[in-house]
TrEMBL record:
UniProt key word Transferase: yes
Protein name: N-acetyltransferase
Keywords: Transferase
Organism: Brevibacillus nitrificans
A GO BP annotation: acetoin catabolic process
The keyword Transferase belongs to this UniProt entry's keyword annotation: yes
């Protein structure tokens, strides 16, 4: 499968900061930007910056950023699922995982997460993919936001739902281990039925239990 990446962008102002939301961008572009210290939800900022640079250059990888001049203040990643996760079992070339979305405290609750996804899905190529995201409450910044798990889950549903990602059932043990965890997905218009069937097969692997 050819992974087509078409650049889109938009401008917005949050907390007096003029932001450019753009992508997919290349690894070398990302390397030329600074990375905000507050982007530390998944790894220390330097390591996360490096990880995103590598994802940007993967054939299927897509990084969309929110930046003020050359300072990255938010990002979202899309790539094939980790080989250790069940979502990679069928080796679907047209399945991408929204692996991480993070916005700096400096500009949170200003609509930037939703705008990152708006720019991500502005590319018609996204209609060729099943896009999934796995929501685990232990990845959430409950302390920083002061939200409880259900309030945070609501925020994630609003962010993901803004581009048509919907909750989907699964018997994945990690997801089922807490009721606030969930799988969300969007199946693109041009995804063939065989891929959807393979995805459904990965969602339910313990049918004999029911
Ligand atoms: C797959 C994964 O990556 S899971 C992990 C997700 N990432 C994290 O938890 C990292 C730390 N958190 C963050 O980076 C951010 O808080 C995010 C990504 C969760 C949200 O980003 P933001 O830019 O603040 O979200 P955005 O402003 O677009 O808000 C989306 C909706 O949630 C609401 N919202 C956002 N933050 C809050 C809050 N703290 N309290 C109440 N509502 C909130 C917004 O008002 C908006 O609601 P609306 O659709 O009714 O207008």
């Amino acid at each position: 499968m050819e992974h087509v990446k078409r650049y889109h962008s938009l401008k917005t102002i949050v907390n007096g900061r003029e932001l450019l939301i753009e992508g997919p961008i290349s690894g070398s572009e990302l390397a030329s930007y600074r990375f905000d210290d507050g982007l530390k939800a998944f790894r220390i900022p330097e390591q996360q910056h490096q990880a995103l640079i590598e994802i940007a250059d993967l054939p299927e990888g897509r990084i969309i950023v929110a930046r003020e001049d050359d300072l990255v203040l938010g990002y979202v990643t899309f790539l094939h699922p980790d080989p250790l996760e069940r979502w990679s079992q069928a080796q679907l070339p047209d399945l991408l995982e929204l692996g991480a979305i993070e916005i700096s405290h400096l500009i949170r609750a200003g609509g930037v997460a939703k705008k990152l996804l708006e720019v991500s899905f502005a590319d018609d190529a996204m209609e060729d993919y099943i896009i999934i995201t796995t929501e685990y409450y232990w990845h959430w910044d409950l302390k920083g936001t002061g939200l409880d798990v259900w309030q945070y889950r609501k925020v994630m549903e609003k962010v993901m739902g803004s581009v048509g990602m919907v909750w989907m059932a699964t018997d994945d043990p990690e997801i089922c281990s807490h009721p606030a965890n969930c799988l969300m997905a969007k199946i693109g218009k041009r995804v063939p039925p065989e891929s959807v069937e393979a995805f459904d097969g990965m969602r339910f692997q313990n049918r004999f239990l029911y």
